[in-house]
Design goal:
Layout (H helix, E strand, L loop, with lengths): L1 H26 L5 H30 L3 H27 L8 H20 L6
Helix pairs in contact: 1-2, 1-3, 2-3, 3-4
Length: 126
């Protein structure tokens, strides 16, 4: 899973920076302040969870746990659903896409929960 998660993190990191720059330079003046803020929220959550995905990739090399794998899957799905829905919402104005965003947020929460449970299950020496 190391390669898969690191490749996903590289892709999400690259696109997160590109989308942030696009919003700052290409969308300013074209979108309302409210939509720019929503777009920025998508970029922020994407980049934060990209770093989490890097951490999960590295952790997966040291800790053989399905929960760690699931954490990575949940983070990736969260980025796609949460951030992706915010991007499409702001660029198209289709407000019904806002119904997808909480599903992505749940993905983020599930990823952190899986990571927490995996950490709880680590056996301490001694």
């Amino acid at each position: 899973m190391l390669r898969v998660f690191l490749m996903l993190a590289a892709f999400f990191g690259f696109t997160g920076v590109a989308l942030g720059a696009f919003a700052a330079h290409g969308l300013k003046g074209r979108l309302s302040e409210q939509y720019l803020t929503i777009f920025h929220t998508g970029v922020t959550y994407q980049l934060v969870h990209t770093l989490a995905l890097v951490g999960v990739a590295l952790l997966a090399t040291q800790l053989q746990s399905r929960l760690v794998t699931w954490a990575g899957v949940c983070f990736a799905l969260g980025i796609i659903l949460f951030s992706g829905s915010l991007y499409v919402l702001t660029l198209t104005g289709i407000s019904k896409l806002g119904m997808i965003t909480p599903i992505g947020g749940f993905g983020f929460l599930a990823g952190w929960l899986c990571l927490g449970i995996a950490a709880w299950r680590i056996k301490q020496p001694g």
